[in-house]
UniProtKB/TrEMBL annotation, chain A:
GO terms for molecular function: heme binding; iron ion binding; monooxygenase activity; oxidoreductase activity, acting on paired donors, with incorporation or reduction of molecular oxygen. The keyword rRNA processing does not apply. Keywords: Heme, Iron, Metal-binding, Monooxygenase, Oxidoreductase. Belongs to the cytochrome P450 family. It comes from Geodermatophilus nigrescens. This is Cytochrome P450. CDD domains: CYP199A2-like (cd11037). Pfam families: p450 (PF00067).
Automatic annotation (TrEMBL), chain B:
GO terms for molecular function: 2 iron, 2 sulfur cluster binding; metal ion binding; oxidoreductase activity. It holds the Pfam family Fer2. This is Ferredoxin-NADP reductase. The keyword Iron applies. Residues 244-329 form the 2Fe-2S ferredoxin-type domain. Residues 17-119 form the FAD-binding FR-type domain. Keywords: 2Fe-2S, Flavoprotein, Iron, Iron-sulfur, Metal-binding, Oxidoreductase.
Length: 401, 329
């Protein structure tokens, strides 16, 4: 039998996508965490979770919190998506199964072993080039954008022409998870052109043999996904694999520039590179938010989120929840960042996480070997995006070892 | 604002020790010689997710490991169901499950892993022989839910020995039930019809059935037929239920892992931090190189060949078959 009881839910009129908030979301995160396990955001009429326990639980409960109605504000049950939905990110089981299985194999830790040596060599070559050109520069265009753009598109196997389209395309895709604000409008004029270019890179004919893209097509030859699905699975790599890593690398460089003792620690113990990167992903949460849609009335604490409603999960707030993390605002290599939700959790957990870690490990190891100190050399500038926490510019001064 | 108090509550995931040891919460006879076991976490939390065609490795008391297909409802996050046939002459796995294993007992669980995934298609033909129905049961439910065009041919010795007939009856004439004592050998050619593209054929059952399927599908396009056959994978030594030692090659330290704790926890206690994430053997983050010793793999990631290589393990859930493992840490 179903009884009805009145419940009260904390409400906030904050707009998480306003420029002041994107500039520094931490005060809003703290307020939402304090307000309760789930909060109603009146501006967008959605529910929100900012505490670790609830965000972790919602991420893993795909039965109750679906992705196929979109993982942005837009509800695909009523609204037309701006592009054909992702077969991974915006899909539920059972349709999610086959594309996920294929990509998990192609991007799994064992499959990436063959890239270790190449990426390490590429990272060392880049750091040498950069240091030879000067020791004071803006790290975003010189290091954190360059390295992923050098190794990742090659690993996917797309041609050289037009790679400068990858960052603006990804930036727009991540903006499009938010409301139709000025950030979305800014990207709109190029959507058709960029989408056309991306679609052209997903075709079998253009993808180099041996790359992730060719392997996805080979899986379709074996019937593991359909030939219609293959280009969309390749598209997932091109959308989700570039901006995210660039911003994560910026996050860790900024973290080290502002925490010199932690840099010394990494130099003394280079095997900490992996932990350091995940600590930076926890601390900064390059992907700040994703939405889910309730498939049924779900009780959270003493509040019920009604069926069909959108829930905004603040990964960034969960990753600094003092209920889960001691001294959460500290960037600290002696912490065990395991279990952070910066890559998500559950069946949609970032399928590219091993790629991101490998890129970061390669670059950090090369830097740790050649650079004694990293210091800020000016005021860093944020890049605003409805989903991503990013830097536009990070002036740094390096002291060669 | 009003709300229904009967709404399901958001529950968090259990720690890793729970996902690799489950409790038998129900045991039912489904047909002559077939029982199902329902398994759940002792703490009642979510189990590792699975897809139709997946199996789990059950580590039975005494350390025998046996693979069983999951045949329950994948939308139920808290329960696994496996169907177990009493193998004639069995002194090990299936006899133990039938005669000894009781509601309330704990069993070790590895996986779920899937060597037999249901690939996307609009048309499926399923052929089950005897207990081979177990992996196909969730597949037909899924094909139905997706609105695919599908048929199941289900053969067995005699009607009494064929499990899940009641459940399958709901699908009407999509399911052809063919007990051998009533209708003779399965008419595979008649069921399959002429070779045509776009159809996926799935079959599970005894070796002679699978051999007949290979022949019957010889003229079909490549990758049409998918089969699953379980081979005994005991890897020599049974899984250990006793404590074992883990030696860390780089530091020379040795730690003891007792049955109640994971390798990851044991490493943490001596200050060796291995990055982890899901702590359920599904994400791959805690992969660690194995230099010596044979792991007791409990993850949902490695396939049989990768397991047999014994060159890496996921320390959040996997354990040891040998008294000592040497890790590259
Ligand atoms: C540090 C860098 C990265 C971060 C912080 C990140 C973050 C995330 C997060 C939070 C999710 C979960 C989405 C959800 O639950 O709805 C996700 C999913 C995904 N990521 Fe990443 N990602 C990163 C790098 C990459 C890379 C390098 C790739 C490609 C190689 C990639 C491809 C994907 C894909 C395809 C999904 C969807 C998976 C699914 O829904 O099954 N990501 N990522
Ligand atoms: S932490 Fe995910 S596999 Fe071990």
């Amino acid at each position: 039998m179903t009884a009805t009881v009145p419940t009260t839910i904390p409400t906030s009129d904050v707009d998480p996508f306003a420029h002041e908030v994107l500039e520094d979301p931490l005060p809003m995160h703290a307020a939402l965490r304090e307000a309760g396990p789930v909060v109603h955001l009146s501006r967008h009429d959605v529910y929100a979770m900012a505490r670790y326990a609830e965000v972790h639980a919602a991420l893993t409960d795909w039965q109750g919190f679906q992705s196929a109605a979109g993982v942005g504000l837009s509800n695909f049950r009523y609204e037309e998506p701006w592009r054909p939905p992702s077969l991974l990110l915006e899909a539920d089981p059972p349709r999610h199964d086959a594309p996920r299985r294929v990509l998990q194999k192609v991007l799994g830790p064992r499959a990436l072993r063959r890239l270790h040596e190449h990426w390490r060599a590429d990272a060392e070559a880049l750091v040498d080039e950069v240091l030879a050109a000067g020791t004071e520069f803006d790290a975003v265009p010189v290091l954190t954008e360059v390295f992923p753009l050098r190794v990742f598109p090659d690993a996917v196997g797309i041609p050289d022409d037009g790679r400068e389209n990858l960052l603006p395309y990804g930036d727009h895709a991540f903006n499009a998870f938010g409301p139709a604000n000025d950030l979305v409008a800014k990207g709109a004029p190029r959507v058709a052109e960029l989408s056309g270019w991306v679609a052209a890179q997903c075709r079998r004919e253009v993808l180099a043999p041996g790359g992730f893209g060719a392997e996805i097509w080979a899986a379709s030859d074996r019937g593991e996904i359909t030939p219609e699905q293959a280009p969309l699975v390749v598209r997932s790599l091109l959308t989700a694999g570039v901006d995210t890593t660039v911003h994560a690398l910026s996050a860790i460089l900024h973290a080290f520039a502002t925490h010199p003792a932690q840099w010394d620690r990494l130099r003394a113990e280079p095997s900490l590179a992996r932990v350091a990167f995940d600590e930076a992903v926890r601390w900064e949460s390059p992907v700040q938010t994703f939405f889910r849609t309730a498939t049924t009335d779900v009780r959270v604490g003493d509040v019920v989120v009604p069926e069909g409603r959108k829930i905004l999960m603040f990964l960034g707030a969960a990753n600094r929840d003092p209920r889960r993390w001691a001294d959460p605002d500290a960037f600290d290599l002696s912490r065990d960042p395991s279990g952070h939700v910066g890559f998500g959790m559950g069946i949609h957990q970032c399928v590219g996480q091993h790629v991101a870690r490998l890129e970061a490990e390669a670059l950090l190891t090369a830097l740790a070997r050649r650079v004694r100190a990293i210091a800020p050399a000016g005021t860093p500038v944020r890049h605003h995006n409805n989903t991503l926490r990013a830097w536009e510019s990070l002036p740094v001064r390096l002291t060669p070892a | 604002m009003t709300a229904s108090v009967s709404a399901p509550a958001l529950a968090s995931a259990p720690a890793s020790a729970d996902v690799a040891t489950l409790r038998v919460v129900d045991k039912q006879v489904r047909a002559d010689g077939v029982v199902t076991l329902d398994l759940a976490s002792p703490s009642g939390g979510r189990l590792r997710d699975w897809t139709p065609g997946a199996h789990v490795d059950l580590v039975l008391p005494g350390g025998l490991t046996r693979q069983y297909s999951l045949c329950g409802d994948r939308f139920d996050p808290a329960t696994y169901r496996v169907g177990v046939l009493l193998e004639p002459g069995s002194r090990g796995g299936s006899a133990y499950v039938h005669r000894e294993l009781a509601v309330g007992d704990l069993v070790g669980v590895g996986g779920p892993r899937n060597n037999f995934p249901l690939v996307p298609s609009e048309r499926y033909l399923f052929v089950a022989g005897g207990i081979g129905i177990t992996p196909l049961l969730p597949m037909v439910r899924q094909a139905e839910a997706l609105g695919a065009d599908w048929r199941l041919l289900y053969g067995g010795r005699e009607r009494r020995s064929m499990a899940f007939l009641d459940e399958l009856a709901a699908f009407g004439d999509r399911v052809l039930v063919r007990p051998q004592d009533e209708t003779g050998l399965l008419d595979l050619a008649g069921f399959l019809g002429r070779p045509r593209p776009g159809v996926r054929v799935y079959s599970c059952g005894p070796a002679p059935l699978l051999a007949a399927m290979e022949r019957a599908c010889a003229d079909w396009p490549p990758y049409t037929l998918r089969t699953e056959r379980f081979v005994a994978v005991d890897g020599g030594a049974p899984a250990r239920t006793a404590p074992f030692e883990v030696e860390l090659a780089r530091t020379g330290t040795t730690v003891v892992v007792d049955p109640g704790s994971t390798v990851l926890d044991a490493l943490g206690r001596v200050g060796v931090e291995v990055l982890s994430s899901c702590r359920r053997g599904v994400c791959g983050t805690c992969e660690t190189t194995v230099l010596a010793g044979r792991p007791d793999h409990r993850d949902a990631l490695l396939d049989d060949d990768e397991r047999a290589a014994n060159d890496c393990m996921y320390v959040c859930v996997s354990r040891s078959r040998d008294e000592r493992l040497v890790l590259d840490l």
